[in-house]
Design a protein that fits this description.
Elements (H helix, E strand, L loop, with lengths): L1 H22 L7 H13 L8 H28 L4 H17 L1 H19 L4 H37 L1
């Protein structure tokens, strides 16, 4: 009976790890949190154990990367010469994008919002476009961070069995 439960936990954990990895790219899925649930499911089986320290640090990494995912477009806007108007536009654009087109809005929302914010501040179009590009690069950086965390969780799950 215990072996059946272990198999179920490991299979569900592996599914969560893969769905979490996909969720790093697909905006509708919370990638790293789902991957972390996969680690926990595998941990609760009798076949693999992670240390409590590793589970805590993994949880901290998930929280940090989820928070950074919201702020990296703003940081990108600022690094590419955006003003507070571009930052506010980036924030508003992210939420508007998520509301109107959840699948793609997280990608185009920060970009369009930063550009519109900069244009409302009477910045020249090329500078506004540059700030929007910074928001897009920030989004890509946040996605990369999520992929790294979820990929590490998959690596650790595989490594613990071998």
């Amino acid at each position: 009976m215990d072996m059946t439960i272990d198999i179920v936990l490991i299979v569900l954990g592996a599914i969560c790890l893969l769905v979490g990895l996909i969720g790093c790219i697909v905006p509708m899925l919370p990638g790293p949190p789902v991957s972390y649930v996969g680690l926990l499911l595998i941990h609760f089986s009798n076949r693999a154990q992670f240390s409590i320290t590793e589970l805590v640090w993994s949880a901290v990494a998930v929280v940090v990367v989820v928070l950074l995912d919201y702020f990296t477009p703003i940081i990108g806007t600022k690094k590419f010469g955006g003003t507070k108007y571009g930052n506010w536009g980036c924030i508003i654009g992210t939420f508007v994008g998520l509301f109107f087109t959840p699948a793609g809005g997280i990608i185009w929302g920060p970009f369009v919002g930063a550009v519109v914010g900069e244009l409302l501040a009477n910045r020249p179009f090329p500078e506004a476009l540059k700030a929007g590009f910074g928001a897009f690069l920030g989004f890509l950086f946040g996605t990369l961070l999520k992929l790294l965390v979820s990929g590490y969780f998959i690596f650790r799950a595989i490594a613990i069995f071998f």
